[in-house]
Task: structure prediction
Amino acid sequence: MLSFSKIPNHIGIIMDGNGRWATKRGLPRYFGHKAGVKAIKRTILACQKFGIKYCTLFAFSTENWKRSKEEIDGIFSLLRDYLAVENNFFTKNKIKLNTIGDLSPFPDDLQNALKSTIEKTKNYDNLIVTIALNYGGRDDLVRAFNKMLKDKVENVDEKTILNYLDTSSLPEPDFVIRTSGEERISNFMLYQMAYSELYFPKVYWPDFNEKQLKKCLKIYQKRNRRYGGIK
Ligand code: FPP
Result:
């Protein structure tokens, strides 16, 4: 049974396995990403149903630029369609959209579409969905330290660093899931995940759904979080 009293406040998801899902079906990788977008929508709605307050999705890493131009353009066009056509998705379901990562290398129209949805949804607070785009945990830290130097911050402590990261408005993730069975962090929220519980279900991202999320949450609820102390 899922206990509604022990739902993680913030979950992070590394959505892995789109390419393998498509290849297994003899399809180009693009179709894996396309099916991945449907899984994103299902998962966001499931998060809302289970009362999760923050969901952060790793959609495009600072390392993903190494992929073919064709694949990158495919991901951008899905992101574009998702924001233009599905704009309603966020407003209809009262979901606040947020991004982390350095958006400056993205095409202007994509940046504008993101800004516009972020602006339209800024007052919603029942679920905050953050999409990590051109995001890397190391890059986040480097940009944070450069900002601190620019601001001439003295006496840097752990809290100061948290406040300078892209995630400054978010709590630290309680639970991070990576699909597809790969057991790596791959430069996701490195500093923020210091005490996150981790889980690596075998399912490829396009097959992820409410039932899968519920299974993950049950695993989380069995964990004993000690933060280095003794219970
Ligand atoms: C990982 O699978 C997935 C990605 C790098 C891209 C995720 C992007 C989307 C789901 C679509 C666009 C995003 C939004 C928010 C609309 P992989 O390609 O690394 O899979 P593989 O390990 O099986 O090759």
